[in-house]
Amino acid sequence: MKHLSKLLALLLSLLLPVIALGEAATSPAFADFSEKFADKFLPQGAAPIMTENSYQSDSMNITITGSRVERSDVYVVDIYVRSVECFQRVHAGGGYGKTTSRVRTMAADGNAIVAMTGDNGHYFNAGWSVSNGKVNRDTPNRMRDIAIVYRSGEMVTVNHADVDNDQIRADVDANNIWHIFLFGPALLDAQGKATLDFSNITIHQENPRSAIGYFEPGHYCFVQVDGRGVKSALEERRSSIGLDLNHLAQLMESLGCKAAYNLDGGQSSMLVFDGKIYSTPFEGGRNVGDAIIIKDLPD
Fold it and tell me: Do 207 and 242 form a contact (C-beta atoms < 8 A)?
C-alpha cells in the first residue's frame, strides 16, 4: 500500500504541470495596448484626472462630446483602453436574467467610469450571449445580428444569416470571446459603410438610441441619442426626436467606425458618467437587464 501511495504521488506530480499548461492554453491573455496608445494613458500608478466630460488614468482615456444631429442630442464617448478587460458588462442583481435595474445602479455596482444601456438580450428566448468571458446562453438565433468582442480587442458584427455557430462554439471553448451582444442590427457593412436598408426592422423609426462603435483593437465609442420629444440639454428651446436606424448608421460611418452595433434604445437608452446620468432619458428611463461599462483595472 505504501508503494502504491508513492506511485500515485509520482503520477500526480507528473500530471500537474500538464494540467496547468492546458488551462493556460485555454485562457489567452488580453491584448495590451499600453504601448500602442501610450500618449493616451497616464503613467502607471498616476492619480486619475477627471473633468466634467473626460477621464484619464493609466488604464483608459475617455472623452464625451455632445452635439445636435438630426434634431436630437447625441453623445459620443470616445474610449481608449489599455486592455479590453476594462470594457465589461454588468447584469442587474449580479447575474444574467435575474432581475432588472437602472443603468446608474449597475454603473455603481461595477465601479464604472462610464456606463450605457446594454442589449437586454435575456428577453429573447434564443441567441448567443457572453458576458466578461462567461457564456450566458449558447443557442442560435436566426433572426438577429450579433456583435462579438474578442480578448484581442477586435470587435466584429455578424449578420443573422451568416452566424457560424460551430465557429463561435470553438472560439468560446478556446476562451477567445469576451462578449457577445444580442440585439442589433449591425449598422455598417464589412467596408465600414452605413447599412441603409432597415425596412424589415420594426424599430427602424426615430427613437432614442444606444450603440457601440469599433475603430481598432483598444479604441471604441459608445453613442447615446436622446429622443421621443425630451427637452434638449444642448440647445435652448429645442427638443430631441431621436434617430432612425439609417441616420444612426450614417452617424457611425461619419465617426470613422469600422464596425457598429445597435443596442437597446427607446426608454431604456441612458448614459451615465461619474455616477451621474449624463443624457436625458425619456420619462426618466426604465429598469434594464444589463449595462456596458468602462472601468479602471487594478494596479
Answer: yes
Could you tell me the three cell numbers for 133? 468571458
- What pLDDT is stored for residue 27 in this prediction? 65
Residue 144, C-alpha cell as written in the block: 438577429
Q: Do 226 and 280 touch, CB atoms closer than 8 A?
A: yes
Whether 287 and 102 have beta carbons less than 8 Å apart is answered as yes
pLDDT of residue 26: 54
Q: 120, 180, 172: which is closest to 156 by C-alpha?
A: 180
How far, CA to CA in Å, does 171 sit from each of 174, 241, 260?
A: 5, 40, 21
DSSP string, 169-228: HHHHHTT-EEEEEES--B-B-TTSPBP---TT-TT-SSB-EEEEEEEETTEEEEEEE--T
DSSP 8-state assignment for residue 53: S
Quote the pLDDT of residue 218.
98
178 closest CA partner among 58, 33, 292: 292
CA distance 225 to 265: 9
